[in-house]
Design brief:
Ribosomal_uL1_CS; 237 residues; Ribosomal_uL1-like; repressor; ribosomal protein; alpha/beta; globular; rRNA-binding; 20% strand; Ribulose 1,5 Bisphosphate Carboxylase/Oxygenase
Length: 237
C-alpha cells in the first residue's frame, strides 16, 4: 500500500462514505483541491462492460462545453497542401515523412496527433511508440480525417478522446478544479451524455456501476449516478 500523505488523510476526513448529489460532489472536489499547482478535475467511471469483447468496447470523443482549461499542442501528419492547411488552421506542428522520422527519433512534443487517411499506412509504423501513450490517430477518436481545420479547432476548444480501460473503467479529465462549480457540472453532464449515447451494443445489465470525481491530488468523491443522469440543463448541456 502506498503511504497516504497527512494532507490527503486530512482531506479524506471531509468526504463521507456516500453518493453525493452532483453539485455537492463538485463543490467538495474544489474544497479538497489544495495542492500547490493548478489541479485537474478527474472523473473515474466504472461501467458494466468487458472490453475484451469487441462489442463491449468504448472509445469515443466528448466536446467539453466549458473547455479543458489546458493548452493542447496539436501535431498533424499530412502531405502537400494539407500540411500548409494544417499550419494555417493552428496546428503546432505539421509535416509529412520528415515529421514521422522526427517522431521515430523520440521527438514527441505534442498532446494530440491528427493524420489524414492517406498517411495512415506510414503512421502505422509509429504504433509501438504512440500506442502506449494514447497518441495513435484513430477514426473513432476523430483524429484520422481530411477536415483538418475543423478537427484542430474542436480539439483545441475542449474536445477529448477517451476509452474504457481493460477493466471497463473510464478515466477522463473534465476541466480544472479552479473552474466555477457550474462549469464543471456542465462538462461532467456532457461526459455522462456522451457515454450513454455511445453505449456498446454488447453491454448487458446495469451499464453505470459507479462514478467518482477527484482533483489530481485530492480524495475520491462518489457521485449519485441517477441524479447526474436525471439532470436537465435545457440548452446549456
Amino acid at each position: 500500500m502506498a503511504k497516504v500523505s497527512r494532507r490527503l488523510q486530512e482531506l479524506q476526513k471531509k468526504v463521507e462514505e456516500r453518493a453525493y448529489e452532483p453539485l455537492e460532489a463538485l463543490n467538495l472536489l474544489k474544497e479538497t483541491a489544495t495542492a500547490k499547482f493548478s489541479e485537474s478535475a478527474e472523473a473515474h467511471i466504472r461501467l458494466g462492460i468487458d472490453p475484451k469483447y469487441a462489442d463491449q468496447q468504448l472509445r469515443t470523443t466528448v466536446a467539453l462545453p466549458k473547455g479543458t482549461g489546458q493548452t493542447v499542442r496539436v501535431a498533424v501528419i499530412a502531405r502537400g497542401e494539407k500540411v500548409t492547411e494544417a499550419s494555417n488552421a493552428g496546428a503546432d506542428l505539421a509535416g509529412s515523412e520528415e515529421l514521422i522520422a522526427e517522431i521515430q527519433k523520440g521527438a514527441i512534443d505534442f498532446d494530440l496527433l491528427i493524420a489524414t487517411p492517406d498517411m495512415m499506412p506510414q503512421v502505422a509504423k509509429l504504433g509501438k511508440l504512440l500506442g502506449p501513450r494514447g497518441l495513435m490517430p484513430s477514426p473513432k477518436g476523430g483524429t484520422v480525417t481530411f477536415d483538418l481545420p475543423q478537427a484542430i479547432a474542436e480539439f483545441k476548444a475542449g474536445k477529448l478522446e477517451f476509452r474504457a480501460d481493460k477493466t471497463g473503467i473510464v478515466h477522463v479529465m473534465f476541466g480544472k478544479a479552479a473552474f466555477p462549480t457550474e462549469d464543471l457540472l456542465v462538462n461532467l453532464k456532457a461526459l455522462q451524455e456522451t457515454i450513454d449515447r455511445n453505449r456498446p451494443s454488447g453491454a448487458k445489465g446495469r451499464y453505470w456501476r459507479s462514478v467518482y470525481v477527484a482533483s489530481t491530488m485530492g480524495p475520491s468523491i462518489e457521485v449519485d449516478i441517477s441524479l447526474l443522469r436525471d439532470l436537465k440543463f435545457g440548452d446549456a448541456a
